[in-house]
Amino acid sequence: MASSKLSVLSGAPLTAKFGLLVIAAYIFVAIFAPALAPYGEREIVGGAYEAWSDTFLLGTDSLGRDMLSRLLFAARNTLAIAAIATMLAFLSGVGLGLIAATVGGRVDMVLSWLVELVMAIPALILMLLLLSIFGTSITSLIIIIAVVDMTRVFRLARSVALGVVVMDFVEAARLRGEGLFWIIRREVLPSTTAPLLAELGLRFCFVFLNIAALSFLGLGIQPPSADWGSMVRENASLISWGDVTPLLPAAAIALLTVGINFVVDWMLHRSSGLKD
């Protein structure tokens, strides 16, 4: 098993290996941020906007907090929230999508109508509206992002499952008297795994970007917790002075997005059965 996995990874294109390396590095930083950061996440250690130096490798922010430390802690905060929200959106979206496709009829019609109703409103605007109503706590942020993104997962899961539920082996399971959840778990889900796994990677990417966008607008992860989106907003004025510090959290967002997309492209290529 291990040797087969290694052979798959060794045969991966350079872009996929780069993406896997980036993802692994971000996970490592997120887990060991307290050990890697020279100062605490919320610790004021110097003056406002101090320049890069041996003491503060990336300078300080407007409150005198070390930028390198906050950049590292932001990886933990952002990735943890994005992972939880993505899993909630993915599990609920896949579950409801497979149920709608398998049951059909009024269940499918009602669920599809509700999803289309939510999707009729632009996602970012809807999230901003809901956060302004229910507050900007971490719990509200996770639930609202999960609910909004679940609709996209639902549509894909339903669309893929609709092509599976009409197959003979699914009909045979129904004639044998198998239950709904047995059919979904044993017959429908295994045939939809490849596109759903690719969607999981893309969905994490979109959730991650949504969190950064909401934080940049002031309704995401709230101060004094570190977050890449809010770090860009708080230090944007430095760009006028030729300081590239605000671009570092933006670069962290972009690098992870590119890495995930490289891996997802490789997964889609492998599941399609196409040869290089």
Keywords:
276 residues; mainly alpha; 70% helix
Write the layout of secondary structure elements.
Layout: H1 2-10, H2 14-31, H3 33-36, H4 67-103, H5 105-119, H6 123-134, H7 138-162, H8 168-175, H9 180-188, H10 193-216, H11 228-234, H12 247-272
Helix pairs in contact: 2-4, 2-12, 4-5, 4-7, 4-9, 4-10, 5-7, 6-7, 7-10, 8-9, 10-11, 10-12, 11-12
Report helical residue fraction: over 70%
Percent of residues in beta strands: under 5%
- Could you say which structural class the secondary elements and strand pairing correspond to? mainly alpha
Number of strands: 0
| Separate helix tally | 12
Protein architecture, described:
It is a single chain. The chain has 276 residues and is mainly alpha-helical. 70% of the residues lie in helices and 0% in strands. It has twelve helices and no strands. It has helices at residues 2-10, 14-31, 33-36, 67-103, 105-119, 123-134, 138-162, 168-175, 180-188, 193-216, 228-234, 247-272. The model has no long low-confidence stretch (mean pLDDT 86).
What would a concise description of this structure say?
70% of the residues lie in helices and 0% in strands. The protein is mainly α.
